[in-house]
Each structure stands twice: as structure tokens, then as C-alpha cells.
Amino acid sequence: MSIRERMSGNEAVAFGIKQVNPDVMPAFPITPSTEIPQMVSTFIANGEIDTEFIPVESEHSSMSATIGASAAGARALTATSSCGLAFMWEELYIAASDRLPLVLCLVNRALTGPININCDHSDSMGARDSGWLQVYAENNQEAYDNFLMAYRVTEHKDVKLPMMVCQDGFITSHAVENINLLETETVRKFVGNYEPENYLLNSDMPMAIGPYANSPFYMETKMNQRLAMKNAKKVILDVCNEFAEISGRHYGFFEEYQLSDADYALVMIGSAAGTTKDAIDNLREAGIKAGLLKIRVFRPFPDEEIAAALKHVKVVAIMDRSEGFSATGGPIGAEVKAALYDAGADVIAVNYFYGIGGRDYTVEDAEAIYQELIEIGNGTKKPEQFKYIGLRK
Amino acid sequence: MKKHIEIRWHGRGGQGAKTAALLLADVAFNTGMYVQGFPEYGPERMGAPITAYNRIGDTPIRAHSNIYTPDYVVVVDETLLHTVDVTNGLKEDGAIIINTDKPKEEILPLLNGYKGGVHTIDARRISIEALGKYFPNSPMLAAIVKVANIMKEDEFLSQMEASYQHKFAKKPEVIEGNMKALKMAFSEVQ
Amino acid sequence: MASQRTDISKINEKSPYTEITPGNQIYGGGGSREFKTGEWRTQTPVMNWEKCAQCLLCAPFCPDSCIPVEDGKRQDFDYDHCKGCGICAKVCSFNAITMKEGI
Questions:
Q1: Cβ-based contacts of A223 with chain C (< 8 Å)
Q2: What is the CATH number of the domain that holds B41?
Q3: ipTM of model
Q4: A106-155 tens-digit pLDDT
Q5: Is residue A163 part of a domain?
Q6: Could you tell me if residue A273 is inside a domain?
Q7: Which residue from C minimizes the CA distance to A217?
Q8: For chain A, which end, N or C, has fewer CB atoms within 10 Å of the first or last residue's CB respectively?
Q9: What angle do CA C63, C67, C71 make, to 5 degrees?
């Protein structure tokens, strides 16, 4: 039985946390993720869950404490945004290399420089090489569903990697929208109890975590992380299938919207995908074969699958919501292009930047991008890389 | 083409325009609709102009942009008419609702030649009469529900009563005043 | 119990990545006993038992716990782990410990 509700994205994730009732949540507040620990601590104060909440003095500490709790054998999580994630940088790599199945509820916000509280993906995209699994949401429903599936993936014996469950700051975190919730009993049954095989507080089986691993061991460690990342692909799909059984909602590495016969496609992540879908409906009514590939799982990166889904498209615009100042484009642009190249796909690909620092992205913006792709496709316009959508000129 | 009613709220930080947008989302949700209610975030300062938005309709809402061509605009503080271009993008077949005690003739020159519906409501007087305090939220909410014909008065009032009973469970004494403000606004909006 | 887990004593610098534990986790306690830090020594403490008063001051000062105490009496050094730092010789009030060059 699903429960019809209306909630903001932050409320949805906090409600998911309440339903899962994890063991430990250390957190330090930062806009726009502050509401998540705030709401969870209220649930705890009201006696609704027995999660141990640890108020800490910084994000460096919140991630450290989450790592400690996870190593001790607890199901642990924290939440943050932007500079909070930047301040966790050192610990992110430790959580991944220690193979701890913890979860970070990330509410994407532009990294400071200049200071800005609005959404872009520079925080999580900057952490894309840290060894974490990364899953993104288009709306509050997906943020909730992604969180419910998170521990099933991270705690799987073939994975044992931490996961960032990301949603767009303010755009989804603070927007109240309809949502379908699952019964708490259904959620608890789906997520199950956490019974780690090895953990620090097991006095019968002592162990050490995080040893020095110099050159004789570091590379082998990385290869094992790479294998775990690869293993996560199957586990993610298995968990998605199981989740579909209890929720009726089907997820995969990405969502294809009107893509199977599309001549012109956008590739993007997050809330702007919904806006693009509205544009696609308008264009389809006008007879234009527009489509969308919305990436849900960015780590592990589903390279072959993305290339296969885009292979038939004439022109694709790969949309990045974070600037990387690379000569080969933003993180999504560079990786999708590499995937297309490796697959030998004959697709014209441009990489655009949009929504940086919260710059709004509208249905009209999306329609204009498709018009450009048509012009590029028929040769009336030369492909222009790394264009900023909505830049004042 | 648009399947959803789009509403833009103009207010000042601390006046509750965001809360009103969320309340509107609530009541529409309770009648089975798909809703979206969200503020535009900037530096949050008491008195600074703020904008909030609603999308309401019978089908799922996917767009996640701000609203530039609203069907309706609600102005919670008339002093904003001098500083903010409140009718910007407002559809001619839509309407604007302004909280003011002035007659329409005095307001019209401030609307940049807007040709659509113009409605006024004295939310200050209603609020003070019904609640004893100035909370423009409830009257403005009733006004937009009526002008945009989002739902029938009876249905709206019963939804709001249920909502207030939940929201003010620990302050039941304010429910009556708020209900009175809603009813007054529903009949007085012009 | 520990037999269910990877026997980490078999992991060394020749082990392929497939044999290394997830996250390099080390299973079983007291693993440092296997790590013979005594090889690092360039000077070696030597006991003169005739001078030793069994005051036991040296034992708590040893940073590597290389001075075992049994039945209230200190025993000879644990040369498998003694790094030859010389602290014991410095703190001995009876000049019962001398540092000899080499291992």
C-alpha cells in the first residue's frame, strides 16, 4: 500500500531515514541540507526512532564519526552540502578505501568561489573520483526511493562501498510536491537488518581497520575498489528490481524518455530532466524526434549502457551542471563522450553547461537547445562546445 | 499548452508568502491534485522582497524551473508595486490579486498597463478584525483560491479547518479567527 | 572463529590483489607480534644482572613493551621487538643496562 503525501525533498529523505531507523547519524548543519538532520533529531527527540544522533563541530568530524560508527558495526549516515562536502574530502577517500557501507545524503549546492547557496553539481562532481557510489534524483520521489535502496547496495558483500544519495539543492530539497511513500513495515522488511561479518565492536573477533598501505599494497587496494565499483552495477540493478516489486517504481542506471526513436537527445542529471521532459512533449507534438537520457547512477558509470542507448541518435547535447575548466568539458560531457568513442558510436556530441550556481533552466531553454541540435544535424550550424546556457552576453 | 495553473507570489521576508504558497499546495493536494510549492531562495532577510511559486493541476508536475509567465500573481505587500515588476510575464487572460485598502483606480497605474484581471483585498483589515493581528496569509490564500477557481468555497473551508486543527493542535483558540479571516476574504475579494 | 575469515598471516608483499582483504582489514588481534621491529635496531641493550635491583623502573618506560615482567621480576629483553632506543639504559638508576653497538 502506498501512502499519498506531499513533501519537500528534504522531508522525503528525512522520512526515509525515519523508516529505515539507522543506528548512528553524526551531522553538522549546512544549507540546503540542514533540514535533514534537523528533522531526524526531532524524530529522535519524539521517541519515534532510536538512532544515535551525534552533533559535531564540523563536517570533517561528521564524516569521521560516520566512518567510526560504520567501522564499529553500525548502520551509519550523515548529510551535507557544498563546502560541507569539501570539508569532508579527506574522509571521503578513507570511507571508500576502508570499504565502509555508509550513506551520505547530499543536497547539491554550488561550491564556494564565489559564495552561493543555490544548486549546481560542483560539490558531488568534485568528489566523483573518491570511490563513492553516486546516485542522483530528479524529484522528491526519487530522492526518497534512492535512499531506501541505498543500504541494500552499500552493504552487499560484493560491494561494501559508501554511497552519496544526491538531490538538487532548493529545487527539490525545498519544493513541496506529491510523493508516494511506502509503509514503514514494507521499508524495514526491504532494507533488512544490518549484520556485518567483521566490525570493530565484535570482541570475539578482533580486527583492525584502515592500516598503512604503502606502495606494496596501495595499488592492489585500488584494484579491489575498482572491482567493487564494477560489482555494484549488478547489485544496483538487482536492488532496483526488488524495489520495483514493493513500490511499482522501476529504476535503472538511467531513465530513457522518448529516446528509443530520438534523433536529438539531451543527457543530464537531476531536477532539470523533468523540465526537459516537458520540452520534449512540446517538440514531439511538433513532430520533432527529441529524447532524453537522464543519468541516475553516475558511479559506477554505466558507460557501455549509455553508449548503447545513444548510438542511434544523430546529435546529442551532454549537459553539465558543474564547471571543471577542462579542455575536454564537464564531468558528464567528458565521460559520455569517452563512452561513445569506446563504443565506436557515430554520434555528434556537444557538451553544454547549464544551471551553474542555480541559474534557472526552463522549458524554453531546453527547446532552444534541441533547435540547435537540429541545426547541427542538418549542417546549418557548426557544433560549439562548452557553451553556457543562459549566460548574459 | 500548459496543463497546470501557475501562480507567483510576491511578498517580503517574514510576511509568510512562502508559507501561503505551501498552504495553497496543501489544500490543493488534499483535494486530490498534483501540486508544487517552492520559494526562490536568496539571502533570507526580514523585509526583503521574496518570490514563491505554485504549480497546480490534474497531472504530475515535472518542470523544475521558476515561473515566468504565471496565470496568477499574488502581491502580499502593496509597497512592492513600486519596486518589483509584479506583472512581468503575467498572462493577459490571468489575474493579479493585491493586498491593499486602496480602490482599484489607484492601483491600476502601478501595473505597467496590465490588461488582465485585477483584484484587490484588504487583508490587513480582515486579519486585524478576525485575528486581532496582522497575518495576511489566510486572507490572501482565500483570495487566490476564489479568483483562480481552484476549488469551491465549501470544500476549501472544510479543508482549511482540518488543516488548521492539525497545525494549531496546541493553539485551538486561533482556529476560529483564521476561519473567519478566510470566509471574509472569500466574500470580500474584488 | 578467526578461521572463517581470511588468514592475514598469509598476506604479504607478494600477494595478488585477489588475496588482499576488503579495505585491507586486518582480522585477528595481536598482529603486531608478527612484525619483528627488532630488525631496526642499531644499538642493543644488555643486562648486567648483578647490578639490577629489580626496581622495575625500566619496564614502564620502554615504549615498545619489550621488557617483560613475570612474578614481580623483569625478564630479559624481547629482542624480536626492541628497537634499541636506549631509554631503559638512561632511566636505570643502577647502571644495570648498557647499550652495545650493533645488534
A1: 17
A2: 3.40.920.10
A3: 0.93
A4: 999 999 999 999 999 999 999 999 999 999 999 999 999 999 999 999 99
A5: yes
A6: yes
A7: C13
A8: C
A9: 135
